[in-house]
C-alpha cells in the first residue's frame, strides 16, 4: 500500500477546484439556446445567476486552482514546463476576463433583458464564453498530455 502524500492531496484539491469552478460553465451552451425565448424577468434572473456563479464559484475556484498549482509546480520544480506555464497564463487570463469582461457585461445583460442592445451584447458574451470554455479545455489538454 502506498502512503498518502500531501502532494497527492493538493493535486486532488487542484483538480477538484477545476471541476467545481468550470464544470457548470460547460452547461452554458444549453442555457444560451434557451434564454433567448424567455420573458425579460427570466432573462434577468439567468444573468444574475451567471454573475453570482462567476463571483462566488469561478473566481474563488481560480484562486484555489492557482494556489494549489503553484504548490505542485514548486514542490516538483516544474515551473519551466510548458504544461505548467501555459495553463497558468490561461488561468490568469480567465480571472482577468471574469473581472474585467464578464462581470460588468453579465450585470448589464440583467439590466437590459431585451431589445437590440441586449441582443448584441448577448451574442458577444455568448461568443466570448465559448472562447473561455475553449481556453479551459486547452489548459486541461496541457496538464494531461504534458507536451
Q: How would you characterize the overall build of this protein?
A:
The protein is mainly α and 147 residues long. The protein has one domain. It has helices at 6-22, 28-35, 40-76, 82-112, 116-145. Helix 3 (40-76) packs antiparallel against helix 4 (82-112). The longest helix is centred in the middle third of the chain and has 37 residues, at 40-76. The chain is elongated. 15% of the residues are buried.
Concise synopsis of the structure shown:
The chain has 147 residues and is mainly alpha-helical. The chain has five helices and no strands.
SSE blueprint and pairings:
Elements: H1 6-22, H2 28-35, H3 40-76, H4 82-112, H5 116-145
Helix count? 5
Strand content: under 5%
Average pLDDT figure: 97
The tally of structural domains comes to 1
**Distance between the amino and carboxyl termini:** 31 Å
Radius of gyration, whole Å = 18 Å
SSE order, one letter for each helix or strand: HHHHH
| Alpha-beta classification | mainly alpha
Low-confidence stretches: none
Largest sheet: none
Helix content: over 70%
By DSSP, the count of extended strands is 0
What is the molecular shape? elongated
